[in-house]
Design brief:
Elements (H helix, E strand, L loop, with lengths): L3 H18 L3 H7 L5 H9 L10 H6 L4 E6 L1 H6 L1 H10 L2 E4 L5 H4 L9 H12 L3 E8 L8 H4 L5 H15 L6 E6 L16 H6 L3 H12 L4 E6 L7 H19 L6 E4 L2 E3 L7 H12 L4 E10 L7 H19 L5 E6 L9 H4 L21 H12 L4
Parallel strand pairs: 1-2, 1-9, 2-3, 3-4, 4-5, 5-6, 6-8, 7-8, 8-9
Bound molecules: (3S,4R)-3-hydroxy-2-oxopiperidin-4-yl beta-D-xylopyranoside (XIL).
Length: 388
């Protein structure tokens, strides 16, 4: 329960912000959130100036970092303006869904690499690196999965899938998200593992098995464990951080070919439980396991933020800057990827739409492919980052 006095103080701040910006009191009452108010006030004054237009990939590269984004083949192949913008800004490309089971496995016996292959070629043509996402996930499974996979055949399907896909792209992948989102403390296991079909059929060593099969097929790629919901100072995220560290430690102590950790970084513009110290410590703990770190899916949900795009963009940009300034301080961090490049194509339009129906604005470019304050925030964070 929020402290009453604090809420009152925050409400007062919000009222003064509302006065400053012309947001009506109705919006305040409706929003029902106190969380973004203090940050909003700060955001109105924050300076997001950037000296010169140098693309994010170049600013990142100047610090030994890689910047890139997720993209969808159908968009990249049909929208030249978008493809040009993408090539200009990004040093690495990750497929949004083309390498997930649902896309690669039309039937139990067939692999379809058509879209994935198109994306690899696009990356190569434009001098970009390419990420693999993802070999093992409890979501985006094909329709036939439930009927076909059982305890008897699960290991065969599991190993065959990982081996076939990693061999197909061997030598062309910067890093593979071998296992995605295997932790869920809500499932109440003492190891914090998520109840997935693979855990049920193969037991807890399915994670290690996945890494071994993948690393054998593609010894050049960095093998990554990728996880969500770790960024904030909430009991939920804290439990997830603890479980993730335990898992990473276990894998390393068993000699698993695990090289890096992916922190997804789907941020919430309205969340104020951001604790730089705790986040910084978590990243240091991961790095101390001799792991590189990648920010793999950065975006900022604007679901509960005020409607005015000017204010919304400032809050979103502040979240980018606050987060990246902590994360990039850790030298084990080698890459930052946003989950999409422009607001025109973001999964959040579907997964976290606004109640007022206004188009969401979570990414560095607007839907006309023009840079927003979030772009400035990223540029500034890269410019300030220590060199790797
Ligand atoms: C999302 C895609 O963006 C959607 O288009 C798709 O329908 C569902 O998956 N965490 C992940 C990503 O690891 O694979 C998810 O991508 C977003 C959350």
């Amino acid at each position: 329960m929020p402290n009453k006095r604090l809420v009152t103080r925050r409400q007062a701040l919000w009222l003064s912000l509302a006065g400053l910006t012309g947001i009506g009191a109705i919006a305040i009452a409706k929003a029902g959130y106190q969380s973004y108010q203090i940050r909003s006030l700060d955001n109105l004054k924050r300076n997001f100036k950037v000296i010169k237009y140098t693309p994010l990939k170049k600013r990142a590269a100047a610090k030994g970092l890689i910047y890139g984004a997720a993209a969808v083949k159908d968009v990249l192949s049909s929208d030249t303006a978008f493809a040009n913008r993408f090539a200009q800004e990004c040093g690495i490309l990750v497929p949004n869904g083309e390498l997930k089971w649902s896309a690669l496995r039309p039937t139990p016996n067939r692999f379809d690499f058509t879209s994935g292959d198109w994306l690899v070629k696009f990356a190569r043509t434009h001098g970009m690196l390419f990420r693999g996402h993802t070999l093992v996930w409890h979501e985006s499974l094909p329709r036939w999965f439930k009927e076909v996979i059982n305890r008897q055949n699960a290991e065969k399907f599991f190993v065959e899938h990982i081996a076939t896909v990693t061999k197909h792209y061997a030598g062309q992948i910067h890093s593979w998200d071998v296992v995605n989102e295997a932790i869920e403390p809500k499932h109440k296991r003492s190891d914090g593992l998520r109840n997935t079909p693979w855990l049920k059929f193969l037991g807890l060593d399915y994670i290690e098995l996945a890494f071994r099969v993948a690393a054998q097929a593609d010894p050049k790629a960095l093998m990554v464990y990728n996880e969500t919901g770790l960024e904030y100072d909430t009991p939920r995220d804290e439990a997830r951080r603890t479980a993730v560290l335990k898992l990473l430690e276990r894998l390393k102590s068993r000699g698993t070919p695990l090289h890096a950790f992916g922190i997804q970084s789907h941020l919430l513009g309205s969340e104020t439980n951001f604790n730089p110290k705790k986040l910084r410590k978590f990243l240091a703990d991961v790095a101390s396991l001799d792991l590189k770190i990648l920010v793999t899916e950065l975006d900022v949900t604007d679901k509960d933020l005020p409607k005015d795009p000017k204010i919304r963009d400032r809050i979103v940009a502040s979240a980018y800057e606050d987060y990246l300034s902590v994360v990039l301080d850790e030298k084990a961090v080698i890459a930052v990827l946003t989950w999409g490049l422009s607001d025109r194509d973001t999964w959040l339009s579907q997964y976290a739409p606004r109640r007022d129906g206004a188009p969401v604005r979570p990414l560095p470019f607007d839907s006309n492919l023009q840079p927003k304050l979030a772009w400035n925030a990223m540029a500034r964070a890269f410019d300030k980052a220590p060199k790797r």
